[in-house]
From TrEMBL:
Cell location: Cytoplasm
InterPro entries per UniProt: Flag_FliH, Flagellar_FliH/T3SS_HrpE, T3SS_Stator/FliH
Lineage: Bacteria, Pseudomonadati, Pseudomonadota, Betaproteobacteria, Burkholderiales
Protein name per its UniProtKB record: Flagellar assembly protein FliH
Region feature (Disordered): 16-64
Predominant subcellular localization, coarse grouping: cytoplasm
Function, as annotated: Needed for flagellar regrowth and assembly.
Family: Belongs to the FliH family.
Sorted UniProt keywords: Bacterial flagellum biogenesis, Bacterial flagellum protein export, Cell projection, Cilium, Coiled coil, Cytoplasm, Flagellum, Protein transport, Transport
Residue ranges that the Swiss-Prot or TrEMBL entry lists as coiled coil: 128-155
């Protein structure tokens, strides 16, 4: 709004004030005493009586006031912008129930998030710890199984060795019995042993003599008389020599072909030391 229009508007407001018009009339009556008391000045048309501002209560009591024209300077008449700014609305009342509900909701949400996070983290930690413990247990179990396997292999080896030795002993026992039975059933099994002694190298020298069990002398002389004579061997009976065996003795040495001696050679080749005559014999 222009400054002149604003000043005119203020002037009209002042002129419309009835108190201001009455005070103005009284001042005019004091200035013209010749007028009667009943001759009061007729007020002018409202809105054009004066340029003065309304009186305060103290000025109204004294009956006069000093007139002062309003400033027409646009800079001084420029109203304060703060007067035209809208008033800020009053803040709404605080809803404590809503605040409590929000606080409770935040606490519940935080608890749920913490619970979920803790559960996830706890599950991960528990899984890793359980896996580590399970792996350690599996390693210990594997080590124990390896130890048991080694012990089992050792025990199995011992069993195998014991079984093998038992089988060998059984086989030797069977062989011993078969030899005895063969000698009893066929005394001629002695003849190959005698021929082996005759062909042995180096040959015996110095009056070699073949000693036989008395029951075998006739058998050997019947079948090997010519060979013995050609080799220069004589035959002599000796009861110390078991039947089925023989001993060749000479000045150069002695050759033993008894059953016990030949048995010892066989069992030593097998790594054993079983006697010819069994313990229960």
């Amino acid at each position: 709004m222009p400054t002149s229009e604003r000043a005119l508007r203020q002037f009209r407001e002042l002129a419309a004030d009835s108190d201001y018009a009455d005070a103005r009339a009284e001042r005019r009556g004091d200035a013209n005493p010749g007028r009667g008391a009943d001759q009061r000045a007729v007020p002018r048309q409202a809105g054009f009586e004066s340029f003065a501002a309304p009186q305060t209560r103290s000025q109204q009591k004294s009956g006069w006031q000093r007139w002062q024209m309003l400033s027409l300077d646009p800079r001084q008449a420029e109203p304060d912008p703060a007067q035209f700014m809208p008033l800020e609305p009053a803040p709404p009342p605080i809803d404590f129930a809503a605040l409590d509900a929000m606080r409770e909701g935040a606490r519940t949400e935080g608890y749920a998030q913490g619970y979920t996070q803790g559960q996830t983290q706890g599950y991960g930690d528990g899984h890793r710890e359980g896996y580590a413990r399970g792996l350690e247990s599996a390693r210990n179990e594997a080590a124990r199984l390896q130890e048991l396997a080694a012990t089992f292999n050792h025990a199995l080896g011992r069993v195998d060795e014991e079984v093998a030795q038992t089988l060998i002993a059984l086989a030797l026992d069977v062989a011993r019995q078969l030899v005895h039975q063969a000698v009893q059933a066929d005394p001629g099994v002695l003849l190959p042993a005698v021929r082996e002694l005759l062909a042995a190298e180096p040959a015996l020298s110095g009056s070699p003599c073949l000693m036989l069990n008395p029951d075998d002398v006739a058998l050997v002389e019947t079948h090997l008389a010519g060979e013995l004579q050609a080799a220069g061997w004589s035959v002599r009976a000796d009861a110390a020599v078991a039947r089925g065996g023989c001993v060749a003795s000479a000045a150069s040495g002695e050759l033993d072909a008894t059953l016990s001696t030949r048995w010892s050679r066989v069992v030593k080749a097998l790594g054993r030391d079983d006697p010819w005559e069994p313990p229960h014999a």
